[in-house]
């Protein structure tokens, strides 16, 4: 997912040097004697994106005044774990487009994408050992396991038009928000922060990650395909009952509920325009944005225990302005 906002640009400018140092670690760590491993890895890494998870780790390190070199290594680890999930996600979802480019599975085939995803996971675990800290390894191992559980849970929920709001939130807090949470917690562990500060960092990351995913699901019905670099209606085509659809079914007429239910169960998008109209007319988009705003506020409150500096102000702005996201 990408975010186009001045606050994000400013936050990333603050850590531009750190991100370059992380890129150097990534480049070194992607080296392999197997050419296809490097080709597929470079394909998805080069696809861009804001790299929000490693950026969050680096910003939080700044807020906690940690300047050690290990932050670059762990930022790369986080990016590798995320990249591996993308490779596997696109195979499972049969996606052909990501960030406006052909997906790795579309370019290299499903077997290569799955196996290179495995390479990135295993390389990430090699790199995290370098930190020499059992709590760091525990945090990343737990996060990776929960992300995998979230992926399986989402697979089980495919084409389930009866998915509840709680069930939806359980998936995104596992599949998406968990790595945001881990990224923020890692900064606290590197900085040797107190238990209270560590928990506040984790709470910020989880809330921010949840809000980002909720907004991402809004954009599948209210975004611009060219800006987003994905096809509108992809979630519906994959049979995903996301929050806009869940709320629209709660508020719609029996006929509208039936139309949405049928589309989720069959993955049919032939009536996408009508469904988008229902989602808008029922106020489901605004209600979903309100849910994201509640998570953003939770993130802002979590930052209260941190000292005020340029980095913590950037984290505050990141949470405050994410609802301006349009792609």
UniProtKB/TrEMBL annotation:
Gene Ontology BP terms: isoprenoid biosynthetic process
Keywords from the UniProt entry: Magnesium, Metal-binding, Transferase
EC number from the UniProt entry: 2.5.1.90
First-level EC class: transferase
Keyword Transferase set for record: yes
Reaction equations catalysed: 5 isopentenyl diphosphate + (2E,6E)-farnesyl diphosphate = all-trans-octaprenyl diphosphate + 5 diphosphate
Cofactor(s) demanded: Mg(2+)
GO molecular function: all-trans-octaprenyl-diphosphate synthase activity; metal ion binding
Function of the protein: Supplies octaprenyl diphosphate, the precursor for the side chain of the isoprenoid quinones ubiquinone and menaquinone.
Annotated family: Belongs to the FPP/GGPP synthase family.
PANTHER family in UniProt: ALL TRANS-POLYPRENYL-DIPHOSPHATE SYNTHASE PDSS1, GERANYLGERANYL PYROPHOSPHATE SYNTHASE
Name assigned to this protein: Octaprenyl diphosphate synthase
């Amino acid at each position: 997912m990408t975010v186009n906002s001045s606050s994000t640009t400013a936050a990333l400018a603050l850590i531009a040097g750190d991100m370059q140092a992380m890129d150097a670690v990534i480049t070194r760590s992607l080296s392999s004697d197997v050419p296809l491993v490097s080709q597929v890895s470079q394909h998805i890494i080069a696809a861009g994106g804001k790299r929000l998870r490693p950026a969050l780790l680096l910003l939080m390190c700044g807020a906690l005044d940690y300047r050690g070199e290990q932050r670059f290594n762990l930022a790369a680890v986080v990016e590798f774990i995320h990249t591996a999930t993308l490779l596997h996600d696109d195979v499972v979802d049969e996606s052909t487009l990501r960030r406006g480019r052909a997906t790795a599975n579309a370019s290299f085939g499903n077997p290569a994408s799955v196996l290179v995803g495995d390479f990135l996971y295993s390389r990430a675990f090699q790199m995290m050992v370098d930190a020499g800290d059992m709590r760091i390894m525990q945090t990343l191992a737990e996060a990776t396991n929960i992300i995998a559980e979230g992926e399986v849970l989402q697979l089980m929920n495919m084409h389930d038009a009866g998915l509840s709001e709680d069930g939806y939130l359980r998936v995104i807090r596992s599949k998406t928000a968990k790595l945001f949470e881990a990224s923020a917690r890692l900064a606290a562990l590197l900085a040797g922060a107190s238990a209270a500060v560590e928990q506040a960092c984790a709470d910020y990351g989880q809330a921010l990650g949840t809000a980002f995913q909720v907004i991402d699901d809004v954009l599948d019905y209210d975004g611009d395909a060219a800006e987003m670099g994905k096809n509108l209606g992809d979630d519906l085509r994959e049979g995903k009952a996301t929050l806009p659809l869940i709320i629209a079914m709660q508020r719609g007429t029996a006929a509208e509920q039936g139309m949405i239910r049928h589309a989720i169960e069959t993955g049919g998008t032939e009536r996408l325009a009508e469904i988008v109209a229902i989602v808008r007319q029922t106020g489901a988009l605004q209600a979903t944005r309100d849910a994201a705003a509640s998570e953003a506020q939770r993130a802002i409150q979590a930052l209260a225990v941190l000292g005020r500096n340029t980095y913590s102000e950037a984290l505050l702005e990141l949470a405050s302005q994410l609802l301006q996201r349009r792609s």
